[in-house]
Write a structure and sequence with these properties.
Blueprint: E1 6-11, H1 27-39, E2 40-45, H2 51-71, H3 81-97, E3 102-105, E4 120-124, H4 128-133, H5 146-162, E5 165-168, H6 171-181, E6 188-190, H7 203-207, E7 215-220, H8 229-241, E8 246-251, E9 262-265, H9 273-285, E10 288-291, H10 300-307, E11 312-315, E12 330-333, H11 339-350, H12 353-369, H13 373-392
Parallel strand pairs: 1-2, 1-3, 3-4, 4-5, 5-6, 7-8, 7-10, 8-9, 10-11, 11-12
Helix pairs in contact: 1-13, 8-11, 10-12
Length: 393
């Protein structure tokens, strides 16, 4: 069984390209690359341009605009039952003729109605119930028209029940699938995502990080409110009160912050070599990734940080603690924690260089042991081989 080549069908949505590193923060791209390296042959299923696809998307988009204009409510057509049936029509024949051994479906709709003998592995970072529960911050899911909520829940339930195996990036998500959808716990697995990096940082360079002068805090500001940007500003001010020589780098925040201790950097596109190089420099020069997030699943930034030996100071929400272990590779504070409490944690670490070095080394070890795509793909293969072995017995 282990010697037999395993051919994968990688199913994607009509509006998402796995070749674009901006999609899902690069997740679709790096999942694809990891599968190719471990399994060999991966065929990407992306709906080709056609009259049917054009009409369908236009129709759903128009329906969405009408609902917004008349009822001032949102509609998410990406989870529509109509779109789910469309995927069945365009993918079924290709799957039957392709000689595939495994289907990887990292989306809540593409495989919800597929009927096939080929094992379906659904890969995701949360359940719909969880995302919808955080709609205050995930505004894409706010103010939905009531029938849309029902449709989304049905599509999500169809997906988790139709899939042979569910693979989530955190125990938080895995537990939700078992509890909220009553699926067999034996088909649910937790495998954290890797770091979305083309070049793995040299561990020796990380060990030489300068921790003797200015404390550099890296903040991801592209979703300022959800990522806790205002709390991060409070942290900076508290550290300044404590006479800590500190500088904050706000990456991706579009607003203007009037503070001499803050450097704002525009959004960086990892598809662009110059932007990727700048991203590397930021990660090398930072001392902490500060993310007092209000709502999150398993931020890829945490896996990236681990690769750079960068301790993370964040919040215990969502699936965060599957990646960040208190006192090991960072700290996940309670949701109610104030900027002052975050600052106290950072001050204690910064004033104890030995502790800082320990956190940094542990972060890198977590990357090497678990938070990398090679480990992720090997775990997927192990799950697949065990699944097929159980099926044959």
């Amino acid at each position: 069984m282990k010697d037999k080549p395993i051919k994968i069908a990688y199913l994607t949505a009509v509006y998402e390209s796995p070749y674009d590193k901006r999609t899902w923060s690069g997740l679709l791209y790096y999942i694809m690359k990891a599968l190719e390296k471990e399994f060999g042959e991966v065929v990407v299923f992306t709906p080709v341009k056609s009259k049917t696809r054009y009409i369908l998307i236009k129709l759903l988009s128009f329906f969405k605009k009408i609902l917004k204009k008349i009822f001032r409510k949102n509609y998410i057509f990406t989870f529509s039952q109509l779109l789910a049936r469309y995927y069945v029509n365009i993918y079924s024949k290709k799957l039957e003729k392709g000689g595939f051994d495994l289907i990887i479906a990292p989306h809540l709709t593409v495989a919800s109605k597929l009927k096939t003998e080929i094992p379906i592995f659904h890969v995701y970072d949360a359940t719909f119930e969880q995302i919808y529960g955080m709609r205050k911050y995930y505004t894409f899911f706010s103010d939905l028209v009531s029938f849309c909520v029902k449709e989304c829940k049905k599509t999500a339930r169809d997906t988790v029940q139709n899939a042979d195996v569910l693979i989530y990036s955190s125990d938080w998500a895995s537990e939700s699938a078992i509890k909220d959808y009553q699926v067999d716990k034996n088909k649910v697995f937790t495998v954290p995502f890797g770091a979305n990096l083309d070049v793995i940082p040299d561990v020796n360079v990380i060990k030489k990080r300068n921790v003797s002068n200015t404390c550099n805090l890296l903040v991801f500001g592209y979703d300022w409110e959800r990522k806790g940007g205002d709390i991060a500003l409070d942290v900076l001010n508290e550290l300044l009160k404590q006479k800590i020589n500190v500088k904050m780098i706000a990456l991706g925040y579009k607003g203007k912050i009037e503070n001499d201790n803050i450097e704002q950097i525009a959004f960086l596109d990892k598809n662009n070599p110059d932007d990727y190089k700048k991203y590397e420099e930021l990660m090398f020069n930072a001392h902490f990734l500060l993310m007092p997030t209000r709502a999150d699943c398993t931020p890829i930034a945490f896996s990236d940080s681990a690769a750079y030996g960068l301790p993370v100071i964040t919040t215990d929400v969502g699936g965060v603690t599957s990646l960040i272990k208190n006192g090991i590779n960072g700290f996940a504070l309670p949701y109610e924690a104030t900027g002052k409490e975050y600052a106290e944690v950072i001050t204690k670490i910064w004033n104890n260089k030995e502790k800082y070095r320990e956190l940094s080394a542990n972060a890198r070890k977590r990357f090497e042991d678990e938070l990398n795509w090679e480990h992720w793909a090997k775990e997927i293969k192990k799950i697949y081989l065990n699944f097929m072995n159980d099926k044959s017995n």
